[in-house]
Design goal:
Distance between the termini: 31 Å
Oligomer: single chain
Helix content: over 70%
Number of domains: 1
Order of helices and strands: HH
Largest sheet: none
Shape: flat
Structural class: mainly alpha
């Protein structure tokens, strides 16, 4: 494997794991698992729609 690709994989893992750990740490104690899943799903749908809209209007 190319050294640059290996570095990019490490960066991807690092930048994916740190936000997951931080989000788990800062979840309020009275939030249920189903609420967390619904919130994550809603966030992903909103991000998907926003990115599609930006691409439709050729902003990105």
């Amino acid at each position: 494997m190319d050294k640059e690709k290996k570095t990019n994989i490490y960066k991807l893992i690092f930048y994916a794991v740190i936000p997951l750990v931080v989000s788990v740490i800062y979840v309020p104690p009275d939030i249920t698992t189903s609420q967390s899943i619904y919130a994550l799903a809603s966030f992903l749908v909103i991000m998907y729609v926003a990115i599609k809209a930006l691409k439709y209007f050729k902003i990105i």
